[in-house]
Design a protein that fits this description.
The complex is a heterodimer of chains A (about 180) and B (about 150). Chain A has about 180 residues and is mostly helical. Chain A contains nine helices and no strands. The relative contact order of chain A is 0.12. The chains are: A mainly alpha (about 180), B alpha+beta (about 150).
Chain lengths: ~180, ~150
């Protein structure tokens, strides 16, 4: 994994990591990590499992390593998710998967519920590769370089998937507003 | 990127991802709590020491057929001689291994970091008294193997 240059965000994260309060750190970044995990898991419960595994590993063994902790954590989460997907021991039934798939991605926003629901529905309809890049960029706060490395795709592919995703969202939302 | 897409990007950034459940936080808390992280081997250590001491100082049971010891002729030095323990067995038990993924080394190279947890056990025995002492201690090992992508 290529570790990014020190940005103000990275420096702030590392400063936070120096104290022992994992709860503060997790409260801030946990929801974002969970949303990233949900791109690679079949259910909300599975996403929580892989975040737990990756976060404990990170906090115990990796938080003092150089580099961007977020990128490290997301790599770890993705690896855990792939391992989980390969495992046949954690199969859940179809009904549970359907219920889990309907778990909302976002906290309800006060006053703009309809709009955020529309956005979420549009995000869910995106092709998976575009949704993956969009999530890593917006909520994972990774650079295109880090995303390309994470997904093993060329930098231009990562950037173009992101642009396609935004364009598709804009079209969906415009269309929904016209018909709504 | 045009302004409309930038506005949309800002709108997306304003959306707050759903909070993890309280159960997830509790599970992480349980895993990270110091009590949980005390390796079970630390519990085994005093237990093993206690058992060893018991073997070392507990008198060997006498059998009915064995002749009664001649207390008069028993040399005093034999009782006061300190036991001489010698190591007779060792074991390294691997009980946890975690692949921590790829890390960047100080010189910029990449390496795969693997953490392993062992319990090292050494058994000592005094051939004279046949008393034994078992010594168990946990050991953590972190190995970084340099790798190259070709």
């Amino acid at each position: 994994m290529t570790l990014s240059k020190q940005t103000p965000v990275t420096r702030r994260m590392e400063a936070t990591l120096n104290d022992e309060s994992w709860k503060n750190w997790f409260q801030h970044y946990g929801p974002k990590l969970l949303l990233c995990a949900r791109q690679w898991t079949r259910s909300y419960a599975d996403a929580e499992d892989v975040v737990q595994e990756a976060f404990v590993r990170f906090w115990c063994h990796q938080r003092h390593l150089d580099g961007d902790p977020r990128a490290l954590l997301i790599t770890s989460i993705r690896r855990s998710a792939i391992d989980l997907a390969r495992s046949n021991t954690r199969r859940t039934n179809r009904e549970e998967n359907t219920a889990a798939a309907n778990e909302p991605y976002f906290e309800p926003a006060i006053g703009t519920d309809d709009r955020s629901l529309l956005i979420e529905a549009a995000i869910r309809r995106l092709p998976a590769p575009q949704r993956e890049v969009l999530t890593l960029k917006i909520w994972g706060e990774l650079t295109f370089e880090q995303i390309a490395e994470e997904l093993a795709v060329p930098l231009n592919t990562a950037a173009s998937r992101y642009r396609y995703a935004l364009a598709a969202l804009r079209n969906e939302l415009s269309s929904a507003e016209c018909h709504g | 990127m045009d302004k409309e897409l930038q506005d949309l990007e800002n709108e997306l950034q304003a959306l707050m991802p759903k909070q993890p459940t309280a159960q997830l936080t509790r599970r992480i808390e349980a895993e990270l709590s110091p009590r949980q992280r005390i390796a079970w081997a630390w519990v085994a250590l005093p237990l093993a020491a206690a058992v060893a001491l018991l073997f070392a100082f507990y008198p060997e049971p006498t059998t009915p057929n064995r002749p009664a010891p001649n207390l008069v002729s028993a040399p005093v030095a034999e009782v006061t001689t300190p036991p001489v323990f010698k190591p007779v067995a060792t074991q390294n038990l691997l009980y946890d291994a975690q692949d921590n993924g790829i890390v960047t080394l100080a010189d910029g190279r990449k390496g795969r970091q693997v953490s392993r947890s062992y319990v090292d056990t050494v058994v000592w025995r005094d051939p004279q008294s046949r008393a034994s002492l078992t010594w168990s201690v946990p050991r953590s090992e972190v190995r970084v193997t340099p790798i190259s992508f070709q």
